[in-house]
Task: inverse folding
């Protein structure tokens, strides 16, 4: 039983698991224990035996405690990829022994790394949700734009930090495999150990040179890993190039501020007759604008003015910001109401005479035509002293007989008609508020606009003015007009004058009004999904493929813990050559003191002595072979007397990977 009292092992190797089997007699550890104990010390032997026999009863005092302990250890091991299993029945002399298992290590590496991958997926999905949500908005206000910028910036930063952290974790896995495949100069070895830093990766491009070779494998690994990091960074940055905030071409936002509005009072200048002629010109320009068949205020945003096509036409004004750079359709409107009565023409139907006779309530009335409209033409006689109302104008209209206009494919001839009409321009109304006096315009200007279709600017006509349109004019009818047709034409022409004067710059004239709703450029998000989606999908796919390749390749070596204590234990055997010296030396100075050895992260197989192996940083020429993959089994350290193992001395001609 003396072989059961071997000493406590002092070398801690994370990632390697214990064995319940005690070392065989003659084991080096047993020899050290015997030499340290006086011969015949049976008391110590009995105490050791009692402790060994009683320990199982102390550990397994409860089934519940054992189950909870296994659950706690399993959870801890799943979160720490390089911490390998303890033996189920750990004893005082085996507590530093660990079992290396490729299957267990691979599973733990996946468990640790899959969380970083899922974060990447989450951030990419979040990025897509942000872009999709904002791209479907009709307008983006200033506060919404700030929120959007904050969300995209935060998401992009989080995605970049997570990807960078993931790649650093992958580098920490790969380094153990890189360090184990061959002997390398100590400084190169140390750079690979710190390969989670891109600066060290760049240094490897120089340090990784080999004599007699243009390019070494480690330089290739360094370039490849640098490109992986670079591509990940570029892809994240390119996401921001796939979308942009543009000014909406059709919608604007509003804010309380000074605005510019059309000043309809300015249709009247110092020259009254010239002003009447100018109003007709505005009406002719605006006649080409097609009104929408709706008075719905929501439909007003499809076009500034709508018509019922029965003599009633409404126009919604444009409001401009103070700088005059942006406008919007307001809720304020002006309306034109025209009413006509049609009469039969008794004489002068062809429009080539200086007078026309029509029948009104059984009476024949003769009307002088100072400017005959000719065959198929249209003449308007507008009164300058109308009596139909303060904002109303009296208009007489004559449609001469003749063929349909050449621009219209119609076999029907146009019959002569005479119309007695009036047209009224309303005050300014608002769908939401009662407009103040600064928005209104005088009655005289309203009458000028109401009679826009008949103003010629001829001073000689006295109390009326006449204006004729040939049958080739855009104002001409394609068929015999009715009273409603004529009412609609007069109403639309008057509103067309207002629309042309309001919708063009400088227009009729503008004035500043305080406390208005000033337009502000609305922004919209435009996303180039053809480029954005491949990046958002490609990032997690590339990360997963990289992770899978790294785990498959790195799992052939025992991946150690990342803590500084564990790393220092890896270097312990090598640095012990400095004894108690060199505590303030730099890395390159330590390498020089050790005479620039070539080293490798390797192992001595567990089946050599007592079923327990050893991992360490070995110096070239120490007799330890570099191999393609670590062997599974129990590992501890030199405490098991590896310096005396006979199979370590086998060497190959060149200490390189098979």
Result:
């Amino acid at each position: 039983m003396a072989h059961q009292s071997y000493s406590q092992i002092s070398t801690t190797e994370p990632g390697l698991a214990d064995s319940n089997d005690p070392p065989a007699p003659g084991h080096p550890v047993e020899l050290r224990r015997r030499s340290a104990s006086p011969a015949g010390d049976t008391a110590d032997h009995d105490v050791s035996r009692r402790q060994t026999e009683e320990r199982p009863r102390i550990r397994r005092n409860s089934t519940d405690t054992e189950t909870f302990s296994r659950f706690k250890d399993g959870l801890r091991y799943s979160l720490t990829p390089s911490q390998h299993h303890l033996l189920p029945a750990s004893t005082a002399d085996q507590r530093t022994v660990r079992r290396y298992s490729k299957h267990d290590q691979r599973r733990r590496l996946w468990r640790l790394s899959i969380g970083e991958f899922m974060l990447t997926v989450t951030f990419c999905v979040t990025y897509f949700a942000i872009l999709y949500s904002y791209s479907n908005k009709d307008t983006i206000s200033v506060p919404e734009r700030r929120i959007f910028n904050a969300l995209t910036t935060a998401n992009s930063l989080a995605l970049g930090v997570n990807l960078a952290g993931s790649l650093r974790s992958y580098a920490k896995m790969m380094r153990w495999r890189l360090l184990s495949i061959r002997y390398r100069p100590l400084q190169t070895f140390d750079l690979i150990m710190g390969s989670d830093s891109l600066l060290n990766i760049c240094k490897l491009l120089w340090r990784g040179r080999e004599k007699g070779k243009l390019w070494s494998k480690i330089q290739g690994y360094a370039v490849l890993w640098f490109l992986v990091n670079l591509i990940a960074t570029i892809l994240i940055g390119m996401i921001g190039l796939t979308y942009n905030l543009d000014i909406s071409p059709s919608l604007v936002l509003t804010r309380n501020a000074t605005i510019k509005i059309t000043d309809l009072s300015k249709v009247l200048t110092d020259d009254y007759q010239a002003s009447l002629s100018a109003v007709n010109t505005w009406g002719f320009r605006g006649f080409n604008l097609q009104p929408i068949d709706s008075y719905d205020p929501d439909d007003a945003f499809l076009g500034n003015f709508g018509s019922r096509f029965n003599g009633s036409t409404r126009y919604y004004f444009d409001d401009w910001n103070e700088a005059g750079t942006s406008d919007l359709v307001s809720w304020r409107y002006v309306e034109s109401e025209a009413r006509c009565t049609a009469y039969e023409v008794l004489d002068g139907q062809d429009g080539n005479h200086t007078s026309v006779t029509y029948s009104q309530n059984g009476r024949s009335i003769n009307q002088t035509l100072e400017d005959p409209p000719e065959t198929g033409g249209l003449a308007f006689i507008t009164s300058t002293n109308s009596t139909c109302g303060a904002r109303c104008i009296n208009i007489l209209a004559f449609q001469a007989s003749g063929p349909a206009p050449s621009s219209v494919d119609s076999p029907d001839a146009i019959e002569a008609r005479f119309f007695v009409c009036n047209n009224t321009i309303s005050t300014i109304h608002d769908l939401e508020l009662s407009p103040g006096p600064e928005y209104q315009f005088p009655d005289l200007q309203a009458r000028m606009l109401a009679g826009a279709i008949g103003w010629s600017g001829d001073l000689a006509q006295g109390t009326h003015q006449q204006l004729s349109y040939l049958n080739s004019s855009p104002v001409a009818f394609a068929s015999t007009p009715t009273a409603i047709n004529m009412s609609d034409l007069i109403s639309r022409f008057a509103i067309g004058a207002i629309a042309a004067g309001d919708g063009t710059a400088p227009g009729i004239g503008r004035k500043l009004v305080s406390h208005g709703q000033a337009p502000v450029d609305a922004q919209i998000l435009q996303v180039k999904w053809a480029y954005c989606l491949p990046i958002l999908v490609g990032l997690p796919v590339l990360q997963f493929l990289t992770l899978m390749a790294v785990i498959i390749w790195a799992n052939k070596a025992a991946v150690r813990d990342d803590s500084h204590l564990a790393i220092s234990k890896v270097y312990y055997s090598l640095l012990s050559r400095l004894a108690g010296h060199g505590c303030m030396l730099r890395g390159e100075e330590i390498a020089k003191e050790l005479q620039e050895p070539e080293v490798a992260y390797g192992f001595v197989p567990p089946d050599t002595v007592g079923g327990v192996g050893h991992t360490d940083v070995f110096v070239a020429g120490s007799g330890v072979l570099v191999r393609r993959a670590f062997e599974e089994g129990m590992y501890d350290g030199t405490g098991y007397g590896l310096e005396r193992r006979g199979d370590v001395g086998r060497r190959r001609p060149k200490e390189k990977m098979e």
